[in-house]
């Protein structure tokens, strides 16, 4: 792939804001949250959405923080829709009501992905750090189902809620979801900070796998089920983002353009912004997107490995966070000499007490 024009990305993650009424300790946002004053304007985002469509992006995921904290969200959805992009809203649902849903539907919103912290309201509030959040989410899900808009429920799984995965499927059925994501916490940003309190045990993982298999049999084609395993228990890493600079791009609230949500941790590189160049130029020509694209950058053991074009060496940000070297093999990999770091984290988590550092906007 080196030296050639890369094919266009499939998806744009538009991180509209880091503002959010919830405080989840596994949030994938960076530890340093962007203030409102640095957020892109409506006009900037509208231009970025047009540039994404020209580049060949097919889907835009409006995310955050809580994207509904941006009052101009319907304007952005309308712009994306007019540009021919499939529009997905990734939301906690706590700011959604009949009026705001109506405005989004009129603007052409195609799909909503609603996140739940748990099925147990008390536990959900402990994780999300917001009183009354669960009832608001359930009300939001009912409004979406009433409207007929396709709905995905997303549950983030960790040590404190893994035992309730079967009840999560029951809730999804009751709320009319067409798709459910049972996604284990990923350990970047706030998740890495709280890893010891969140990492499930191997027994919990096995129980969750059984619950997912049972739900697949029970629902058949009536409900699609996506299952994201905790990669610390895997022998081989995931192909993070489908390969660096191959399928996705992220735009942060202040307009940095990144190959993944954690790329701002990569040292010694200039981060391109939507103020400096078009998305197309950034995708094709920037140093950042070329840094780990393809396989030429790989050292051993990835360089000589027959999985190098399957997992693309795993996750660069996880390699950096755990080993201090972004070009190292993902330490989840059994062939990595750093695998012992992952095994030590599992051992440490098994005896850790469950106290969190909450992600608090404005702290
Ligand atoms: Fe993937 Fe590298 Fe491990 Fe091979 S050695 S499985 S390419 S991380
Ligand atoms: Fe950055 Fe995986 S999160 S490469």
TrEMBL record:
Pathway this chain belongs to: Cofactor biosynthesis; pyrroloquinoline quinone biosynthesis
Domain Radical SAM core residue range list: 6-222
Bound cofactor: record note: Binds 1 [4Fe-4S] cluster. The cluster is coordinated with 3 cysteines and an exchangeable S-adenosyl-L-methionine.
GO molecular function: 4 iron, 4 sulfur cluster binding; cyclase activity; iron ion binding; oxidoreductase activity; S-adenosyl-L-methionine binding
Key words of the record: 4Fe-4S, Iron, Iron-sulfur, Metal-binding, Oxidoreductase, PQQ biosynthesis, S-adenosyl-L-methionine
Single Gene Ontology BP annotation: pyrroloquinoline quinone biosynthetic process
SMART domains, sorted: Elp3
Cofactor(s) the protein requires to work: [4Fe-4S] cluster
Binding site for [4Fe-4S] cluster: 20, 24, 27
Pfam families hit by this protein: Radical_SAM (PF04055), SPASM (PF13186)
Family membership noted in the UniProt record: Belongs to the radical SAM superfamily. PqqE family.
Function: Catalyzes the cross-linking of a glutamate residue and a tyrosine residue in the PqqA protein as part of the biosynthesis of pyrroloquinoline quinone (PQQ).
Protein name per the record: PqqA peptide cyclase
Source organism of the structure: Acetobacter estunensis
Source organism phylogeny: Bacteria, Pseudomonadati, Pseudomonadota, Alphaproteobacteria, Acetobacterales
Gene name in the database record: pqqE
